[in-house]
Amino acid sequence: MDKIRYLFLSLFFISISISAQNSSKKISDKLMGIFFEDLNYAADGGLYAELVQNRSFEYSPTDVDLKTNQNNNWHFFTAWSIVREPSSIGTLSLESSQPIHPNNPHYLMFTTSTVGNKGVGIRNSGFNGITIKKNEKYNFSIFMKAVFGENVPVIIQLVDKDNKVLVESKLVIDSADWKKYSVSFSPNLDADIENASLVLLFQKKSKVALDMVSLFPENTFKNRPNGLRNDLAQTIAALKPGFVRFPGGCLAHGDGVDNIYSWKRTIGPVEGRLEDRNIWNYHQSFGLGYFEYLQFCEDIGAIPLPVMAAGVSCQNSSRSKGTGQECVPMENMDQYIQDILDFVEYCNGGVSTTWGKKRAEAGHPKPFNLEYIGIGNEDKITPEFNIRFKMICEKIKETYPNIKLVGTSGPSSEGEDFDLGWETAKKAQVAVVDEHFYKKPIWFLENLNRYDSYSRTAPKVYLGEYASQGNKLFNALAEAAFMTGLERNGDVVEFASYAPLLAKIGFTQWNPDMIYFDNNNVYPTINYYVQQLFSVNRGTVYFGDIIGQDKNSKELASSCVQDSKTGDIILKFVNPTDKVTTMMVDLKIFKKIVSNATLTVLSGDKDAVNSPKENNLTLPVKSDFKVTKSFDYKLPAYSVSVIRIKTRNK
Prior knowledge:
This protein is an alpha+beta fold and 650 residues long. It has three domains: 2-24 and 542-645, Sandwich (Immunoglobulin-like); 34-49 and 220-535, TIM Barrel; 61-217, Galactose-binding domain-like (Jelly Rolls, Sandwich), CATH 2.60.120.260. The protein has eleven helices and 34 strands. The strands form seven sheets. An eight-stranded parallel beta sheet has the order 2-14-17-18-19-20-21-22. Strand 20 (432-438), helix 9 and strand 21 (460-467) form a beta-alpha-beta unit. Helix 5 (333-348) crosses helix 7 (383-399). The longest helix has 17 residues, at 383-399.
């Protein structure tokens, strides 16, 4: 029986390999990328490396909707407490008279009435504890002014959970006006310390105003000031994404019109950024703002794909009025559109332009070379949406004809909003349409050919958010199989990104996610490694009919691409079944193949999960592999395999 089946496969393979040269197509070299949204506490306390929580005392009880989040400890002094000896007396209050900046209206006033031997002061516990790493240097800064008292000495300490001092330094408040003070720490530790705190002790009877209390590891990603947490950023960078979509998602169009994400409030000195709640029911400092997003894209070699609201809020808005989709008033639309045009100038304008100058002042005189802008996200396609979407698209095209626009087709893979979204996008003649869907693994396996029938003359597709609703190996294999279809249709599908990207353990609002983390470690899922296999093995040309398989094996998936930069041929095989299966490869159309190739295989139990509690992780295994012009490859059960073959010419 095996011989008969093998003969059938051989005949089938021979019959299709003849047309291989005619079935090649150019595909996007940026097909695989990432989507970052400040969801699951991904930014503050996550990717953004700031270790002090509520550093500017702008947290508010109104940040949290108690109907959906029972965290009733959310207030102006969240993460702060008083530190004192029995013989010391100190009081704190929230003030708003003469702040550092109008956008940062609140600050803490600390009054020291009686000073004991060690002083009296305040403690910040960070984002549920601060992790201090050995051999790491930390940079502390703060804005202060002496309202009462001259030359007030302050001791700055890092202490462990038992109040043991790990390191300390001293500074003196010598001004009655706001002034920034900075010190650096280099704790001498034998091991990392978890659940540490930052302590400020005032050594003199005084009244002191303080704001923007900050503690950063010096070792941020690329050593950027106001930078990103290095291990998290490195894990993302290891995906080698072709693009980064940001800042949302639902975050972009917000929880009501007053909560639409405004890029302008996220740039400039951090003490002047206007903080706000977000749609995911917590506070955002905007320390990780549009400049930092653009810089991160540049640092990892990815193009930026920012998303702007289409003049309407999320239709799932529920705060206060509960009115669903809200619209920017028509009389405000000109200014709203101008803000988007200003953003293009911020990214691409010369240093003599208004917004290009602001970019240069931030430390980046060269343009960011923005190519794409997303307009809208999973919106309800209402008449009000259509009017505003059209206005925005027309004005951007008129002012910046080289900018490519990305439309939206709602939150599902089909349905009324999906159809209307595509119709609206086509009328607006946008370059790309953003599709989103979260489905069970079987849906992905049953829809491997989803994009085969899409029009080659209509706007291209950006699969902006997708996941198979789980982090098991079988979920990742279903996604991998679907991704071979994205490569096969790379002439239609311009971009694709798994979602969501990050989730902080203990603060996760959406599952599944690609990368989980806590204050100490990063935990990539199996889905992450599948995404990485496809992203680091992207091609620029797809070749059909190179890999032969039984037509009845509908669960199996494969693709063949070539990277025009290196000349490498990349074969991908996905077997989401419990059967070992053979596929046949015919590389006769390729010249000067190097026989010494590499094979990377990710396989295991279909229910395997990479989690903090798992000791045996399911990881890709790389090995040497010999290839010839024609060869058979045996796919392990429940596996994805990548064979990378070098050629002697590009």
